[in-house]
Specification:
Largest sheet: 6 strands, mixed
Number of helices: 9
Strand order of the largest sheet: 3-4-5-6-7-8
Oligomer: single chain
Distance between the termini: 40 Å
Structural class: alpha/beta
Helix content: 40-55%
Shape: globular
Strand content: 15-25%
Mean pLDDT: 89
Number of domains: 2
Length: about 250
């Protein structure tokens, strides 16, 4: 909200909780829980408020009805789902911070799954894909002396509870997308380059397994000279949390 005074922010959060615009996951009576930051989510009056928001031109509501209805289930979300959302939110905050600190030389734009549900979203066509539904879509623009370089990233978070066979299937679907839907991607995004998949794995052992599996899948499509591994990159949750998603943490397949 642009305030540096934590006491004011705390007072506002308390007021919003009392009015049921937001709720929290926090137990002030539990000593162990008191040492952890509170996790906030939208409350019932907050959801009702979202329903009333219109676009700037006043022609229609800002949020899709189906997307707003999902917010009534926030209090029942699993810890795995919550951790994934917080991780993706950290990525979005970092993109915005990097953009504001770069003096327009390096900019990031992004859209979450909820964002590209909107028919006006540039990534909306991904909803029709039977292969991928990335958790986060990001585009970077780097304005250098030799011109502007644009790259597209599709971020997937592998939950700690995800079985290996499903992780393998997700990797296979991403590789299939690069092979079978590459022309559609280029046409929709008006680009000649393919997206780079960034996979966030819960543990180092998962990174090792995923890289080995990805190499096997890529070998069936690309020759070594074509370097198909540049389209799949991997990092652990701990590396992303400690160094950030824009740091040099991503390992090629």
């Amino acid at each position: 909200m642009g305030h540096s005074d934590k006491r004011r922010i705390g007072a506002w959060l308390k007021d919003l909780r009392e009015k049921q615009y937001i709720e929290w996951i926090y137990d002030p009576k539990d000593f162990a829980e008191k040492t952890k930051p509170a996790i906030y989510y939208i409350g019932i009056n907050g959801v009702r408020w979202l329903k009333t928001l219109e676009n700037e031109d006043g022609t229609e509501y800002r949020y899709l009805p189906d997307e707003v209805r999902k917010r009534y289930r926030e209090s029942t979300r699993s810890r795995t789902y919550i951790d994934r959302c917080l991780l993706l939110a950290d990525c979005c905050i970092e993109f915005e911070t990097q953009t504001s600190n770069s003096n327009n030389s390096l900019t990031f734009t992004y859209q979450t799954e909820a964002d590209y549900l909107d028919p006006d979203s540039r990534y909306h066509f991904l909803l029709e894909s039977e292969l991928i539904h990335p958790h986060l879509c990001c585009m970077s623009r780097n304005a250098g002396d030799k011109g502007t370089t644009t790259k597209q990233y599709l971020i997937e978070v592998f939950d700690a509870t995800l079985p290996r066979y499903r992780l393998s299937k997700r990797l296979k679907q991403c590789v299939q997308f690069l092979e079978e839907e590459d022309e559609e991607w280029k046409a929709e995004m008006k680009t000649n380059s393919l997206p780079i998949f960034l996979f966030v794995c819960p543990r180092t052992t998962d990174v090792i397994y995923a890289k080995r599996r990805a190499r096997s899948l890529l070998a069936d499509i690309w020759d070594d000279d074509e370097r198909g591994d540049i389209f799949l990159r991997f990092a652990t949750v701990d590396a992303l949390k400690s160094k950030g998603c824009t740091a040099q943490i991503w390992e090629r397949a």
